[in-house]
Design goal:
The protein is an alpha+beta fold and 263 residues long. It has 2 domains: 138 residues, Fructose-1,6-Bisphosphatase, Chain A, domain 1; 114 residues, 3-Layer(aba) Sandwich (D-Maltodextrin-Binding Protein, domain 2).
């Protein structure tokens, strides 16, 4: 087993420590805080999940860096970085809706080499390691291959900031006539697993952070998909396009035409 596969398996262990409990708490939490806006929710369970995952990884990998959405920053010396979103889709979790996930990505010298996304609601475990393929509950997964944008089921997400959401809506008005339909799950990590497993054909979103996408990027790539930012480079956060190679360029061209990163 290679190093990337070992990181993947350790991330699976870490995700399993919190997944079942998160499912039990979904829709049962009565108190919440906010972060960047009144719609950017965080709960005690987000913080509990991050601490549980972080403590486990820090014990197993004492020299690695760890970065978590809810404030964890542990410096490392090994060149290995663990990137954690303890609950992606907290609004879904708070209301008891499907679509909340736990995302754990691993980078070596800033290159993502492994990722795990747990879907507590559906009890699906998405996992990938560099050059090892992508799986869901241990079975191989692959992206779809639509022939044209007109056949593409597209997923996206929206900013927490009202003015940005208004402008994103304007962009969607221009996109809708070019695709078969649009979906919005409320979790970037969930959307990326949907691309990887063929539940949707493509996904784009602006205004993300690296913990939203780190695990999902390698899962999509290992499932045969292509990922990029709006310039066609590997995403570093903020803007992400994930799609089958058959339509990635067409979607990229459309989004560039619409200046989708300016909304």
């Amino acid at each position: 087993m290679g190093e990337a596969a070992e990181f993947r398996d350790l991330a699976l262990e870490a995700g399993r420590l919190v997944s079942s409990e998160i499912k039990l708490r979904a829709g049962q939490i009565k108190t919440r805080d906010t972060k960047s806006s009144p719609t950017d929710l965080v709960t005690a369970t987000d913080r509990w999940s991050e601490k549980k995952i972080t403590d486990f990884i820090a014990t197993k990998r004492t020299k690695d860096e760890i970065l978590g959405e809810e404030g964890t920053t542990i410096e490392g010396t090994s060149g290995v970085k663990w990137i954690i979103d303890p609950i992606d889709g907290t609004t879904n979790f708070f209301y008891g809706l499907p679509g909340y996930t736990v995302s754990i990505g691993v980078a070596v010298d800033e290159k993502i080499v492994a990722g795990v996304i747990m879907n507590p609601f559906s009890q699906e475990e998405y996992a990938a390691a560099l050059n090892e393929g992508a799986t869901c509950n241990g079975s191989p997964i692959a992206v779809n291959s639509p022939k044209d944008l007109s056949e593409t089921l597209l997923s996206t997400g929206f900013s927490y900031l009202p003015e940005k959401r208004k402008n994103q809506g304007k962009v969607l008005v221009e996109i809708l006539p070019n695709v078969s339909d649009i979906r919005r799950s409320g979790s970037a990590a969930n959307d990326l697993t949907c691309v990887a497993s063929g539940k949707v054909d493509a996904y784009f979103e602006y205004g993300l952070n690296i913990w939203d996408i780190a695990a999902g990027l390698i899962i999509v790539q290992e499932a045969g998909g292509k990922v990029s930012d709006l310039e066609g480079n590997f995403p570093s956060g903020d803007f992400v396009i994930a799609a089958s190679p058959t339509i990635h360029t067409h979607l990229l061209d459309l989004l560039q035409t619409l200046s989708a990163d300016e909304v």
